[in-house]
């Protein structure tokens, strides 16, 4: 059987090659600002990824050479300080090492009695401490906040109608469930209603005020109307950091309404929940400690390598009862590797799970929560700086409030947004910056989301000045 091993025949040579690959990876991070933010993938490179399945081995040095030539130059670019689109974390060198260590350990963290689940429970305790949840709250790693929001909805559903819904389905409920979220809520909330079988038609989209927060009086009216119609309200989804421009709902008021109405309060805090780590921003999360569950991503503002989403649930018993699925092949024993009665697979659908907790643990151990919070605060200061430049500009105008780290703005006099989209594409195609676009009040606008801990005020000024120059160019191409 030894001939079937997939380990290298020459460990010394492999080790040298691996060390060189790590060195090159760290070089790319160290010098990332020196290159373009993004490059389009050429057609001849795309063609290289239409080849048939390889059957014979190749030299690792040759394969790594192709990584350098065909892959590394054409990734999305979110490590670059002028990547200013969407909500992407930037990663850290510590994270690179953590991923390497986790890959070598290759631990399946779905369950069993080993250190992986222990570290995962430590992360849950840290999140509970940061957000003001009880220490015994349960948590589970998932791919990202979209998945965490889905799982949170399932826990809320079971809490409302009982765990028999797992066997009987929603037909056994007898009444239509209804949920409530801001019109600014992420699209994954609507998708979660669909995936859970509740139906997106029964997610009530509540209008927002000028600051982007959910209108409380409309929420209360919608709940009352559903009760009158014979429906069963079960869930309020609060937003901590709206995807368009970073708005926060009044989480304290939502907690009051949820308690009065007997509803589950889940908070989508994909990136905004982590403002709890920054003392000057923490007041934005006031009320988060009263939520029943919160979804967020360590891979956004904590800069843990992708992916590292997390769901934190106040009531571990309800959480576990929503997902635990006893099976003969998952039998627990009093001692040994199959010991323990609380495995991560009891808190979500995944049985095969990587050691995501290790890279989070290493990130916080080496950098510290205070430094991460300071980087978050610096991003928000950068957004205020950019907003001031936009407000003073003869070329641009602000399109939305700037409560956090996202600045939405437009060319002055732009009505349909076509010019804004063209400006964004030119910035991207020239490798100068990578903002994104969104729609505010029906108009397509430029969206600069400052998430990168490498982004300086000089970067922000340079991007703004590049945008001003491109705005002066002819529109047609």
Task: Write up this protein.
It is a single chain. With 477 residues, this protein is an alpha/beta fold. The chain contains 15 helices and 12 strands. It has a 7-stranded mixed β-sheet, with helices on both faces. Strand 11 and strand 12 form a beta hairpin. 45% of the residues are buried. The model has no long low-confidence stretch (mean pLDDT 95).
Give the key terms.
single chain, 477 residues, five-stranded mixed beta sheet, 15 helices
Oligomer: single chain
H/E series: HHHEHHEHHEHEHEHEEEHHHEEHEEH
Q: Please give the share of residues in helix.
A: 40-55%
Q: How many DSSP H or I helices?
A: 15
Tell me the strand percentage band. Answer: 5-15%
Distance between the termini: 63 Å
**Overall geometry:** globular
Task: Walk me through the topology.
Elements: H1 11-30, H2 43-47, H3 60-71, E1 83-84, H4 93-105, H5 115-131, E2 138-142, H6 145-161, H7 165-168, E3 177-182, H8 187-195, E4 203-206, H9 216-228, E5 232-239, H10 251-261, E6 264-268, E7 293-297, E8 309-313, H11 316-323, H12 356-367, H13 369-391, E9 396-398, E10 406-411, H14 418-429, E11 434-440, E12 443-449, H15 457-471
Parallel strand pairs: 1-11, 3-4, 3-5, 5-6, 6-7
Antiparallel strand pairs: 2-8, 7-8, 9-10, 10-12, 11-12
Helix pairs in contact: 4-12, 5-12, 6-8, 6-11, 13-15, 14-15
Summarize the entry for a quick read.
The protein is 40% helix and 13% strand.
